[in-house]
Amino acid sequence: MSNKYPFSDIILNLSDNFDDLLESLSTLQRLGELPAHRLTEQVLLENALEILHHSIKATRCCIYTLPPQELTLLENAPLGSVLAIDCEGIPKQCNATRIEDMFIRTTLEKGTMQDCDDCTTLDLGSDLLENETSIISVPLMVTEQLCGVITTSHSGRQHFNAWGYRLVELFSTFLGQQLALCRCQNQA
C-alpha cells in the first residue's frame, strides 16, 4: 500500500529531528550556564546529573570519577561509589549497579563509548539486569585526561535514538570543560 501523502512522513521526521536538536542544545546551554568557577566539584556534578537525567529521560544516570591522582582503575579493584540519580530525581552517592559497574570498567579500559540497545541479549543472567535494558557509557575527559565515566540507562529496549547518543557524548565533552574550570578555580 503506497502512502497517499509521501511528504507527510518526511515532514514528521524533520519535525522530530528538529525537536531533538532543540532539546540537545537546551541541555548543553543549561550545562554551560552552570557557574563552574564558583561551585565545588560535587555540586557541579550533582547539577550536571540533574540536567542530563531530565533531558535524556533515562531511568538512571550516574557519574563515576576516578580517585585523585589515578589514571585508571586497577583490575578487580573495587569501583567505589558513583553519583547517581534515578526516578526520585535526587542525586546521591551510592554503589553502581552490577551492569553499570561492568560498563564503567569497560569504558575506563577502552577509553571509548560503550553501549547496548538491549542488554538482555548479552547473556548476563537476569540477576545482573536490574533496571538497565538500554545503556550508554561515555568517558569523561578533563584536559585530555580520562577522569571518569558518565553512564545513562533506561529500562526499555532501544530507548536511546541517534540524538540521545550524540547528546551524551557532547554532554561529556562540555562537562569535562566545566570540571577543568572548577578544578582550576578550586586549586587557586
From TrEMBL:
Residues 40-187 form the GAF domain. This is GAF sensor protein. It holds the Pfam family GAF.
